[in-house]
Write a structure and sequence with these properties.
Alpha-Beta Plaits; 7-stranded mixed sheet; alpha+beta; single chain
């Protein structure tokens, strides 16, 4: 067995470089045919525009004389040009869009690639020969592609439905534009020194699964996961409070997940290209850093919105000095009947 770049044992009975070459042709439709100048010419775009698009998508630089590109890449440039004609003429907006798409799919592709390697490692019969690996990819890849298309369409439909719902019901709005929360695993750094890599992957997978189920179940959105931390949003403080408390409950029920701590803030948020920015996000992060394991801490905006809600109880904490805030107030959030 040989160890792959992601720490997965790969059977030594196959030529990894040869398999990777065959899988690349399967994924890209053909062998590499064009240099950077040739692909720009075939797509009818300026060489510099093609280079900027390539880098915005997060790919490594390609030498001018390298035969690297396929007809798939030509088709991608054609798509970008059609999108530009339909209204994405702003170069900065177009670059931001391609950059975000590249970052999203880089993470997705890494996960899927590692998943395939783990499948092969656990079922050696799949890797008895190069043909076995390629045959697995031929069966698996079309289904993954179709599933991605389905999830994307469903998620976009859900987003548009949320926008329409809040536009039609302005009376439901609170003084906070949005609630932002962070959930992380307490003692994660020391945990990484005590468990194996396989155990750590299982813990993080369980953590992400719980977070996705709880946040989505309440109609919130998981913005992103960063190692042992999940960033989520909700359109109102009550929903965010329910998510935060349910996350703690779910972690307590799951023996695979260490204690969790959650911080939530409410206020104005810049929501752009799938990510969130602004002081409310920063405050949520700082509040999380002050929370003890098994606690939910909230900021002033959340406390104001929840103070008269009989379902919750707030316990004021002493103001703390944290990076960027010299007098940050926080409240511990509990359910009404909790000790």
């Amino acid at each position: 067995m040989s160890e792959g770049t992601d720490g997965v044992d790969i059977p030594s009975t196959i030529d990894i470089a040869s398999v990777a070459d065959r899988l690349e042709r399967l994924l890209l439709g053909s062998e590499r045919r064009y240099t950077p100048a040739e692909i720009a010419e075939r797509a009818g775009v300026e060489r510099e525009s093609a280079r900027q698009l390539w880098r915005s998508l997060g790919f490594a630089a390609v030498g001018e004389d390298d035969v690297f590109f396929t007809d798939y890449d030509v088709a991608a440039l054609d798509i970008i040009q059609r999108i530009q004609v339909l209204g994405f003429e702003d170069e900065q907006l177009r670059a931001a869009m391609t950059r975000f798409v590249g970052q999203t799919y880089a993470r997705l592709a890494s996960w899927q690639g590692q998943l395939m390697l783990e499948m092969i490692a656990k079922r050696p019969e799949l890797a008895a020969s190069e043909e076995g690996v390629v045959e697995l990819a031929e069966q698996l890849l079309p289904d993954l592609e179709q599933l991605q298309r389905y999830v994307w369409r469903r998620q976009l439909a859900a987003y548009l439905s949320r926008v329409a719902s809040y536009a039609e019901s302005p009376d439901q709005a609170t003084e906070a534009d949005m609630a932002v929360g962070f959930a992380d695993l307490a003692g994660y750094t020391s945990l990484t020194r005590r468990v194996s890599e396989a155990e750590l992957r299982e813990i993080l997978d369980s953590f992400e699964a719980v977070a996705t189920e709880v946040v989505g179940g309440h109609g919130g959105r998981v913005v992103k996961t960063i190692g042992d931390e999940v960033l989520f949003t909700a359109h109102d403080p009550v929903t965010a409070a329910e998510i935060a408390l349910d996350l703690l409950d779910a972690a307590e029920r799951d023996e695979r997940i260490p204690e969790m701590r959650v911080g939530v803030a409410a206020g104005a948020v810049i929501d752009r290209l799938g990510d969130v920015y602004g002081s409310t996000v920063n405050i949520a992060s700082r509040v999380t850093s002050l929370a003890r394991p098994g606690w939910v801490l909230v900021d002033r905006g959340m406390a104001t919105a929840l103070r008269d809600d009989e379902r919750f109880r707030l316990k004021a904490r002493r103001p703390q000095e944290v990076r960027g805030y010299s007098h940050l107030r926080q409240w511990r959030l509990l359910r009404a009947g909790d000790e």
